[in-house]
Amino acid sequence: MQTLVGKDDSDWVRLAWTWIHSEVENGQRVFVPAGGTPTPLYRRLCEEPTSLWRSLKLIQIDEILNGPKRGIFRGFFEAELKPFLAQMEWIGDADRAADVAILGVGINGHVAFHEPQLPRHFGSGCVRLSQETLSYLDLKDPTWGVTYGVAAFARAKKILVLAQGEAKQRVLRQALIKRDLPVSWILEHPNVTLISNFAL
């Protein structure tokens, strides 16, 4: 695992931007996450669109299926990646494979909605969200999501994991020690890079 640490928010975005433009090839399929962590990166991509980013097929990795926040992640992409919506492949229509995975880290070590109670070989499907995830996203129980899982992400040629903040630092430290969380399994990939704003 390669680890890169940004000294501030602009440096963190620069590292992620540079990784994408050096490691991703024109026309590749890329899993992309919703959420607050990748938002500054997406905003720079919208401000400075490149021919590489315009060439990619961008694949939604998870979505909420019921309740008042149903479809909120699609809404996120429609707001934050508006210039690139023609390139989006929504999870309801998505293929199971991608060349590259850009992923965040969940509050309990989940990746997308691959929750810790699910087996390592989980590839995709509907899942009931854990209490930790419900609390973090301010959702009511039961809430269901649809998601890709570790087995799908592990087939990517390269993985970029993005993480910011003390809570994610604690989760990643636990993941590296216990090695029993979905993000633990992602970090075992032979070509994975972690970009964070903290040291492990």
Description:
- This protein is of the alpha/beta class and 200 residues long.
- 34% of the residues lie in helices and 21% in strands.
- The protein has helices at residues 9-23, 39-47, 51-55, 72-80, 131-137, 150-153, 166-178, 182-186, and strands spanning 2-5, 29-32, 57-60, 62-64, 88-89, 100-103, 124-128, 144-148, 158-163, 192-196.
- The strands form 2 sheets. The protein has a 7-stranded parallel sheet, with helices on one face. A 3-stranded antiparallel sheet has the order 4-8-7.
- The longest helix is centred in the N-terminal third of the chain and has 15 residues, at 9-23.
- It is globular and about 40 Å long.
Q: What's the arrangement of strands in the largest beta sheet? A: 1-10-9-6-2-3-5
Quote the beta fraction: 15-25%
Please work out how many helical segments DSSP would assign.
8
| Tally of individual domains | 1
**How far apart lie the N and C ends?**
12 Å
Let me know the average pLDDT. Answer: 95
**Range of helix content:** 25-40%
In CATH terms, what is the architecture? 3-Layer(aba) Sandwich
- Principal-axes geometry comes out as globular
Low-pLDDT ranges: none
Order of helices and strands: EHEHHEEHEEEHEHEHHE
What is the CATH top level name? Alpha Beta
Record field, number of beta strands: 10
Q: What Rg do the Cα atoms give?
A: 16 Å
Largest sheet data? 7 strands, parallel
- Looking at the structure, the CATH topology is Rossmann fold
The helix-and-strand class reads alpha/beta
